[in-house]
Design goal:
By secondary structure, this protein is α/β, with parallel strands linked by helices. It is built from four helices and six strands, in the order βαβββααβαβ. The protein has one domain: Rossmann fold, CATH 3.40.50. It is globular, with a radius of gyration of 14 Å.
Length: about 150
C-alpha cells in the first residue's frame, strides 16, 4: 500500500501539500491512500506504519523561486537550511527522528514546493500552478508510470 501525505497548515502557500492532495482526490488507483496533515511534527512517524511506500509533499522555504517543485532525497533534505519547513518541527526533523528510530518506510518519495508567502488566504498563483502540476505528475505516476521512490530498507 502507498500513502501520499500532504503536509501543511492553513497559512497561505504552506497549504501547498494539502492542495496537491485535493487535486489528487478521485484520480489515484486502489491501494493508494491520500491524507492531508496539519503540521504533524513527530506524529508524522505513525503514518509510515504498514506502508510499502510513502510520498511526502510539503512547502519549503529554501530561497528558490516561488512555485519551484523539487524532488528530494533524504540526503538532499539534510542539506537544506536547518528548518526548511515552515513548521516548528519540520519534515527534515521528523525524518531524522524516523531514521534514528528505525521506522522509515521501505520506500520514500519527497516532493517540496517552494513557497512564496504566508500572509494571505489561499495560495499564490505560482504555488497553485505548481500544486496542480505536481498532482498531474503524481496521478500519472501512481496510475501506472511508477513513483520514483528512494529505497531505504531491503
Amino acid at each position: 500500500m502507498i500513502r501520499v501525505l500532504g503536509i501543511g497548515s492553513p497559512f497561505g502557500d504552506d497549504a501547498a501539500g494539502w492542495r496537491v492532495i485535493e487535486h489528487l482526490r478521485g484520480r489515484v488507483p486502489e491501494g493508494v491512500e491520500l491524507l492531508a496533515l496539519d503540521r504533524p511534527g513527530a506524529a508524522l512517524l505513525r503514518w509510515f506504519e504498514g506502508m510499502d511506500g510513502v510520498v511526502l509533499i510539503d512547502a519549503i522555504r529554501s530561497g528558490g523561486r516561488p512555485g519551484a517543485v523539487r524532488s528530494l532525497s533524504l540526503d538532499a533534505l539534510d542539506g537544506l537550511p536547518e528548518s526548511p519547513s515552515t513548521h516548528g518541527f519540520g519534515l527534515a526533523h521528523a525524518l531524522r527522528l524516523a531514521g534514528a528510530m528505525g521506522v522509515l518506510p521501505p520506500r520514500l518519495a519527497i516532493h517540496a514546493i517552494e513557497l512564496g508567502g504566508l500572509e494571505r488566504d489561499g495560495l499564490t498563483p505560482e504555488v497553485e500552478a505548481a500544486a496542480r502540476a505536481l498532482a498531474e505528475s503524481l496521478a500519472r505516476d501512481l496510475g501506472g508510470d511508477g513513483i520514483k521512490f528512494e529505497t531505504l530498507q531491503p
